[in-house]
Amino acid sequence: MLLLLSPINDLTGGHSWSQIFTGETITLRCEIQGGEGKVWKYEWTAPNTNSPPTSSEYRISRVSVSHSGDYRCRGSSDYLLTGWSDAFRLTVSFPSKPTVTLQPSWTQIYSGETVTVRCEIQGGEGAQWTYEWRAAKLNTPPTSNEYRIIRATESDSGGYSCRGRRDYFFSEWSDIITLTVSYKPKAKLRADNTAVPVGGSVTLTCSVNPSSSSGWKYYWYRDEKSSEALTTQDAVFHSNGQISVSQEGLYRCRGGRGNPVYYTEDSQSVRIGKTVTASNRPVVTLYPNWSEIYRGETITVRCEIHGGDTEWDYEWETNSRIKAPNQNEYRIRSASSSNSGNYRCKGRMKSSQHKTTEWSDSVTLTVSDNVHSAASLTVSPDRVQHFTSDSVSLTCEGNFTEWRVRKFSEDGRLYSDCRRMTGSTCNINTSKSDTAVYWCESGSGEFSSAVNITVQNDGNGPILVSPVHPVTEGASVSLSCSLRTQKYFPMELKISAVSKSDEGFYKCQYSGRESAQSWMSMNSSRTPCAANVYFCLRIYFFHQ
């Protein structure tokens, strides 16, 4: 006798499954071959059962994971007892939730492309599934695990989900995957320049919008009728859809992806020309002409192109940390160390963007944090404003033996020496003509800081008593009025801790008469006369 144990699906009797899912129904059948004509009783060994059946069939309704295990049977008739059958191992598992995937894996596609929507049930391999689909456009949904969309249209946009069915058992519905089908896109071409510089190249960039779409390769063409894409002999190819070209021509591009390749529409064409160098060569100048300035100062870097009435656009190149604008002047206000560097420029004709000048020579600008002067000037009495016929002394100090006090007057005249110089001191009996800017100069050419002296011509008017030198930040200072006949007034302006906001012009008033105005500055500001005294003087009288 041969004892066989075989499973059959209870409802159809036609499937032999060792892998089933929770909730399904299965029947195991014990067959004794060669035992026909006898009346058999059956005995079963099975997991998770207290009262196994005695018939040849063992039916399990709505199986659970606990029914997994080995099943055996044997038969008995009168005094005859068979041996145990071979074990049949039953595996019961929870059904996996299906997953919808796209091949290629692009959720953004374009009209005319082909995509395959696929339903996958992990752990259900080998099972005989049929599939149900929920889709945006499916009049007759397929029953297979793949749904192929050929030459997609916008009506194919929408959500797709699926589930598996095995006889009367259904899996869960998958999560929805959304497919978007848009009109055929047009590539976009961008050039960083439309003129190839002498000995150089121009970078072209091709892209496809929206940027969320992926998988694109880019194809480049030159001249309107050319259908042959550029190769590495025609251009240098970079990543991210960029190429560098050095030849003139009309360039366009398009994107392509997939197999067979799906192409976008061609981009707009961009004409690339050669740069023609103009004979004019620009010059970079600094105004004022200081190659070294100090933190907080203002200076203008200027690009000058001489000759003719041509209108120019300007391009700057600098290794400073702040990029210069494309104008002929670059005004640096409140300079810092980030403005230090080399500056050069070139011009591009407005009437012909392909025609440019050569680059100018570079000019180096250095921005320092501090200014150090080897010479100094003291004024007695220590104030800016004085009456006529006052005795004022200006004394030069420093490690030098030869000194002279220089003067730049209101009428723009430069005086090289003091009329009454005793050693290092210049003595002045003031008159209106002594209103000027004064500084010390050593025999070796060292400059002190400059000071302003203002002589009041109105014998009855007041003068402002203010410090002749810049004031240290945080120090206290007093400003007051004075008359020729009355030196001190109870009216006084006291600043207990000077700050940058206190810097500016001050004047005083008495009995309807006003003093001249004088500038009070902070000593954190560099006195520009230490580098270029003549420019300082022009600025001073301009502000007066």
From TrEMBL:
Instruction: Tell me if Disulfide bond is a UniProt keyword of this record.
Output: yes
Residue ranges annotated for the Ig-like domain, each copy included: 7-93, 98-182, 185-277, 282-366, 425-521
Membrane-crossing residues?
A: none
| InterPro entries in UniProt | Ig-like_dom (IPR007110), Ig-like_dom_sf (IPR036179), Ig-like_fold (IPR013783), Ig_Fc_receptor (IPR050488), Ig_sub (IPR003599), Ig_sub2 (IPR003598)
One GO cellular component term, please give it.
external side of plasma membrane
Instruction: Fetch the PANTHER family from UniProt.
Output: FC RECEPTOR-LIKE PROTEIN 4, IMMUNOGLOBULIN FC RECEPTOR
Q: What is this protein called in UniProt?
A: Ig-like domain-containing protein
Q: Lineage of the source organism?
A: Eukaryota, Metazoa, Chordata, Craniata, Vertebrata
